[in-house]
Amino acid sequence: MKRTTKRSLAAAGLAGLLAAASLATAEAGQDGGGATTLLTVDYQNGRLDSGIPKLTTTHAKADDASYVVDSGPDHAVAHKVTLGDSGYESDGAPRSESATNDVPEGRIHVGDEHRYEFSVLLKDWKTYEPGDSDTGDIIFQGKHAGGNRPSFYLMTKRNSIAFRSPLLGLQSTVVDDIRPYVNRWMRFRVDVKWTDDSTGHYRISTRLPGESGFTPRRSYDDVRTFHPENPTDFGYLKWGLYRPDESLEKGDVPTRVVLHDDIRILDLSG
Ligand SMILES: [Ca+2]
Question: Rounded to the nearest whole angstrom, what is the distance from the C-alpha of residue 259 to the centroid of ligand 1?
Answer without folding.
Answer: 10
